[in-house]
Automatic annotation (TrEMBL):
InterPro entries: Asp/Glu/hydantoin_racemase, Asp/Glu_race, Asp/Glu_racemase_AS_1, Asp_race. This is Aspartate racemase. Belongs to the aspartate/glutamate racemases family. One of its GO terms (molecular function) is amino-acid racemase activity. The lineage of its organism: Bacteria, Pseudomonadati, Pseudomonadota, Alphaproteobacteria, Sphingomonadales. Signal peptide: none annotated. The keyword Isomerase applies.
Length: 242
């Protein structure tokens, strides 16, 4: 008798089975899946991308490690990526910005395509705001890792960071969203966004996947809001169709 795993490995539909390495955090993962469905050109169930989602909420705190105060998340990330591959995933996506610090190393540990949210976001910035400074709303770990600042600097663009005080407000807002207090988190993010807009940001990266849960990417103060979850969803759809 055929098992569910056998059915998955037969790659139903026209595209590869997507493995979603999620749980960082759980609400952001759910938001990514909703946006993936919305961005997929489909008229029926069978037109959507077959997906396996693993909520790896046991992965140690990424920011804590990057700031030197927590265990290394990489072993848990590798185990999770391999688990999805072994369950039949033929392509991976990880809806967590901070975890993309390990993206290149993770991609080297699995023999299937691993879509980069960072590269998808940088592509979107080039399309909607090809010149001028870019603001970054993200975890302190993402900011310190340089995963957005360095590639922007490589093409001669400035990545605007926040003051320590406003960065602390953003981290507080991320914690509120993870706890389900979305409106309270949005107020924290909006305060930081105003600072970046006042300093000349032409685009603002919503660089933690909790942030677009609380802020509507279609609204804003003038600078384009770059929703990293939407960027990842679009990149997955494009890769699947190709």
């Amino acid at each position: 008798m055929e098992t569910a795993l056998d059915a998955v490995r037969r790659s139903p539909g026209d595209g590869p089975v997507l493995g979603v390495l999620g749980g960082m955090g759980p609400l952001a993962t759910a938001d990514f899946l909703r946006k993936l469905v919305e961005r997929t050109p489909a008229r029926r169930d069978q037109d959507h991308i077959p997906a396996l989602t693993f909520s790896a909420n046991f992965v140690p705190d990424r920011t804590a490690f990057l700031l030197g105060s927590g265990p290394d998340p990489f072993p848990a990330l590798v185990a999770s990526a391999r688990y999805l591959r072994d369950c039949g995933a033929a392509m991976l996506a990880m809806p967590c910005n901070t975890a993309h610090y390990w993206h290149a190393r993770l991609a080297g540990e699995v023999d299937i395509p691993f879509v980069s949210m960072v590269q998808a976001t940088l592509k979107a910035i080039g399309e909607v705001a090809p010149t001028g400074p870019v603001g970054l709303l993200a975890t302190t770990g993402t900011v310190s890792s340089g995963i957005y600042a360095q590639p922007l600097a490589d093409v001669g663009r400035t990545c605007l960071a926040l003051s320590e005080e406003l960065q602390a407000e953003v981290m507080s807002g991320i914690g509120l969203v993870k706890a389900g207090q979305i409106a309270a988190g949005a107020a924290k993010f909006a305060m930081a966004e105003r600072d970046l807009a006042d300093r000349g940001a032409q685009a603002i990266i919503l660089g933690c996947t909790e942030i677009p849960v609380a802020l509507d990417a279609a609204a804003g103060l003038g600078p384009a809001r770059i929703d990293t979850l939407l960027c990842l969803a679009d990149a997955v759809v494009d890769r699947s169709q190709r």
